[in-house]
Design goal:
Number of strands: 4
Strand content: 35-45%
Largest sheet: 4 strands, antiparallel
Length: 118
C-alpha cells in the first residue's frame, strides 16, 4: 500500500472587538501534502459566532441579517469590516498563516513520517 496524500483539517476561532461590535470569526484550515515535501495551506472564512452589539447578543442568522441590513442602509457595512478583520487575522501576510504552515509541516514530518527524521 502506498500513501499518496495527507490532509489535516483544523478549526480556528478569532475574537473581534471593534468598537461596539464583538464577534468570533471561525476559519477552517486545510493543510495538505500531495506527493511533495512542502505542505499546502488553504484558509476559509466559514462562520461568525457570538455576535454582540453594545453588549446585546444578536442570536441567529436572521437577526444578524436584519441588523446588518439595517446598518448597511445607513452606510455602515459590517460585512466589509468583518472581512477586513478576517484578512488581518488569517490572510496571506498574517502571522497566523506563517505559523500554522510551519506547524503543519512539522506535524506532517513528525507524525506521518517519523522515519524521515532519522
Amino acid at each position: 500500500m502506498k500513501r499518496t496524500n495527507e490532509i489535516m483539517m483544523l478549526k480556528n476561532e478569532h475574537e473581534v472587538n471593534d468598537g461596539d461590535l464583538k464577534a468570533t470569526l471561525v476559519a477552517q484550515v486545510l493543510g495538505t501534502r500531495l506527493l511533495k515535501p512542502d505542505p499546502g495551506l488553504e484558509i476559509e472564512y466559514v462562520d461568525i459566532l457570538e455576535i454582540t452589539f453594545n453588549g446585546v447578543p444578536i442570536n441567529g442568522y436572521e437577526n444578524w441579517k436584519k441588523f446588518r441590513d439595517f446598518h448597511k442602509e445607513m452606510g455602515i457595512n459590517y460585512d466589509v469590516l468583518l472581512d477586513e478583520r478576517f484578512e488581518e487575522a488569517f490572510g496571506e501576510r498574517s502571522a497566523f498563516k506563517s505559523k500554522v504552515l510551519e506547524d503543519i509541516a512539522d506535524i506532517f514530518m513528525g507524525y506521518f513520517h517519523p522515519e524521515d527524521e532519522k
